[in-house]
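ok trying this again, last paste got cut off
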Amino acid sequence: MLKTLLTTTAAKANLMDGMRAASASALMLLVGCVLHVPDFSWAAIGAFWTSLATAPHGARNRLASMLSFAALSTLGGLLTTWAAGFGATAGALTILGFVTVAGLTRIWGDAPYQVAILAATACVVMVDHPAAGSAGGYAYLGLYLLGCLCATALSMAIWQLRPAAAEQHKDAWHHAAARNMREALRQLRAHASLSSDGVHFALRLGIATTAAYLAVHKLELPCGYWATMAVLLILQPSAAGTLPRSLQRAVGTAIGTLIAVAIGALAQTPLEIALAVFPLIGLTMALRPVGYSVFVAFLTPSFVLVADYAMPTIDYTYALVRLENNLLGSAIAVAATLTLWPLMDRLRKSS
């Protein structure tokens, strides 16, 4: 059974995606080490998220998705950070609007939704940046955008070094484009109730994420963005999709937290963290097709180490706070799925 599991994992893993994301993120951290600028952690985060937002099949699709994400997440981060400077209420209203619009993109397919929801994720992480409103407080956004653009350039360069692989995917891209066109036409012809269902999902996502944001502010929880991120990445159009995903995220986060604590005990300097991030992000991206729990198990320590690049002390208490926030976000996502327009789920199942 173990041999079968390893064979299946190896078959699904995408090592090239792992190398692209890991090299871009680790490079940003190494530059930060050389220049003694801890805020280069934002460049590494930008590089990592841009890699996650990359569309499959075709250099043109890849470039469009990466540049779209870079622009949307940077502008969205600027807007939400600026709004939060007027207080939590203003920040919450901005998040509600941005996340709801991101949720609406699901109507047009998975590729636009992937870019939009990751851009929304960037916004909920940036919204409470402590330097907001101060002189030069938005400089981190420049570093973040630099990371996005570096990841894009590196990805496109690696793609150009593999023309044979590009040709192999050419036919697959055309087939995928044809399928997407047929799906778009089918959606346009669909009954108005399906559109209503998409709007309900977008509103549910926006309300749940905003509720998580307000909850962590009311409770004064540190690292509260882990709760809002959990809502964004867990909540699905139906309870049948949200409940398993919440359990998978809880298991993956628990395992990832232990990995983060173990590595944090060994990696005590920014350089050591930068070196540790490379294999972690590589595994995160490479194993993403294997399963959501596996993906989260490596995503958690990757993000913890990058986010804590400027303060490398990671102990059990610090990691536990992140786990608690994830569980809070998961609970809010499940509650929103069960209480906000649940009738649509029952109608879908009975039809």
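PB: full thing came through this time. Residues 161-174, 187-194 have pLDDT under 50 and may be disordered.
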